[in-house]
Each structure stands twice: as structure tokens, then as C-alpha cells.
Amino acid sequence: MLHRTGLYYKPALPSEWELELRKRIDKLNTDFPYYGSRKIAVTLGREGFLVSRKRVQRIMADMGLMSVYPRRRNLSEANPEHRKYPYLLRGITASYPNHIWGTDITYVRLKGGWMYLTVILDWYSRYVVSWAMSEQLTTDFVIDALEKALYNPKLPKIYLL
How many CB atoms are located within 10 Å of the residue 82 CB? Predict the structure, then answer.
């Protein structure tokens, strides 16, 4: 079924002001990809474009623009296909240096974005045995930190089984 309004409707072209606003939003998103709609709306307000955050959100969605930030990944949820290993440290207390090591991965905000940081800690002394940073969450920099820890000349030799 065809309605008469759909047949005769011609969408209005965007105004000159709207086109200028879209260009400026695109430029801001290119220069500062980590700016969200709030920050872009504030920046536009300082430049003389009085627009609401919701309008900036709508225009960014129309243009397919998104801010860049670490998205929520459910890294704690186990994949059912992966093998589960038992926790071997249950009931064991770190009673001397170099007895138990632990590792953690987090991200650090920087002016131009963020980087991932992995740290290997001695649980007894809380000494940072080694660390490594990377722009991407891959296994390479974690293995690099572990190799630095294993071959650290400041620590006593570790005998691996």
C-alpha cells in the first residue's frame, strides 16, 4: 500500500548552518577522537554554536561517528570451550620474598588515548618485579613482562620445574 504523503514528500535539504555544524563536529571528532558528545557540545558552545548534547548525539549517529575509549569487555566471563585450571594457591600464604608472583593488566589514560599496562608483583614484598606497556591488548607485551621478570638480575635465580 502506498500513502499519498510518502509519494509527494521531498525531504528538506540541510541549512548552511547545519552543514557548517556537521563539518565542525567531524573536524572535532577527527582531531580529538576521545571526545564524546558532552565534550563536543561544550567545545561547540565556546565556538559560538549553541547546540544541545542530544543534537550532537543525533548528528554523530547520523554521520556514523563514535568516540574512542576502552569499551567494556567481559574479560571475566569464561569461554565454555576453554579448559578450567584449579586454583593452586588456596590455603598458601606468601611467607618470603619471591615465593609467589601475581600479575594484573589494566589500562592507563593518556592525553592522546590510553595504553595497557601489565605488572608482575611479588606478593610478599609488593615489589614490582617487572612491567610492560602496549597500545593493544595482546599477549606479546605480557610475555615480554614475564621474560623481564624471569631474567631480572636483581632477583635471586629462580629454578623452574
Answer: 7
**Sign of the dihedral through C-alpha 120, 122, 128, 130:** negative
In the 8-state DSSP scheme, what is residue 13?
Answer: P
Query: Which residue reads 567545545 in cell numbers?
Result: 43
- Largest interatomic CA distance in the chain: 84
Q: Are 43 and 35 in contact (CB under 8 A)?
A: yes
If DSSP codes are grouped into helix, strand and coil, which group holds residue 90? coil
Q: What is the pLDDT of residue 158?
A: 57
* Boundaries of every domain in the chain: 15-63, 101-150
pLDDT (tens digit per residue) in 107-131: 888 877 788 999 999 998 888 999 9
| 128-134 and 113-122 strand pairing | antiparallel
Q: At what angle do helices 53-63 and 37-46 cross, to 10 degrees?
A: 110
Q: Does the pLDDT at position 89 exceed 70?
A: yes
Contact 40, 28 (CB under 8 A): yes
Grid coordinates in use for 112? 592522546
